[in-house]
Write a structure and sequence with these properties.
Layout (H helix, E strand, L loop, with lengths): L12 E4 L2 E4 H5 L3 E7 L5 H12 L1 H6 L2 E7 L3 H15 L7 E3 L4 H5 L24 E5 L5 E6 L8 H16 L2 E2 L10 E3 L5 H7 L5 E4 L2 E4 L5
Parallel strand pairs: 3-4, 4-5
Antiparallel strand pairs: 1-2, 3-6, 6-7, 8-9, 9-11, 10-11
């Protein structure tokens, strides 16, 4: 299955470190970040899981739920959490899916449908494609897909920046320019005519070109 932006995120039931969940029900009215790992006790993922735990308050204040996934059983997740706490300073404080039947990984197109067998005999390299970040909106639609190799740690500060942009542009008819950060100027969406823009922005806008109309970030 190949997922694209705008698709409904597939629903599923799974065991997690915080109990069994039905994914869509668990999301509720929130935004969600689902991020996946090829196997427990992998070094790069260990650093990522610890960092996400440390910055979880930033996701909380944006109304975003975090959930991890690793292609290993739940009991190994619990042991891995001890290592994460010892080496990174903070253990996961969000649920971790135990995808030992590969169901979610297949559903989200991270592993081929033909994969089967004992997850414990598979190596991280066997599951190296399970390195995705999915940002999902309250409407259950996929807003962003990021895919990383095993050798490159993910930038979760960038994930927060993307969420800030997604939430802003969902509320206002604007786009965010390159390297935009919260509070910086934005671009009036191309779907807004000049006549409409004059009503929304009576003080006008900067226009280095007619199609680039720059305004201060709208209030939340």
């Amino acid at each position: 299955m190949t997922l694209a932006l705008g698709d409904i995120a597939p629903d599923f039931e799974a065991k997690t470190t915080e109990g069994t969940i039905r994914f869509h029900e668990w999301i509720g009215d929130s935004w969600c970040v689902l991020f996946s790992h090829p196997k427990d006790f992998t070094p790069v993922c260990t650093t990522e899981l610890g960092y996400m735990a440390r910055i979880k308050p930033e996701f909380d204040k944006r109304g975003v739920k975090i959930i991890g996934l690793s292609v290993d059983p739940i009991d190994r997740h619990a042991k891995w959490a001890d290592d994460i706490r010892d080496t990174q300073g903070t253990a996961p404080n969000y649920p971790m899916i135990g995808d030992d039947d590969f169901k979610v990984s297949k559903l989200y197109g991270m592993l081929p449908a033909s994969v089967s067998g004992d997850p414990l005999v598979r190596t991280p390299a066997d599951n190296q494609t399970v390195r995705n970040v999915f940002i999902i909106g309250p409407d259950r639609k996929i807003k962003t897909i990021l895919v990383y190799p095993m050798t490159t740690g993910r930038n979760f500060d960038e994930v927060l920046r993307v969420i800030d942009s997604l939430q802003l542009t969902a509320r206002h008819r604007v786009s965010t320019p390159v390297n935009w950060k919260q509070g910086e100027k934005v671009i009036i969406a191309g779907s807004v005519s000049d006549d409409e823009a004059k009503k929304i922005y009576p003080n006008g806008w900067e226009a280095p070109r007619p199609y680039i109309r720059i305004v201060p970030q709208p209030e939340a």
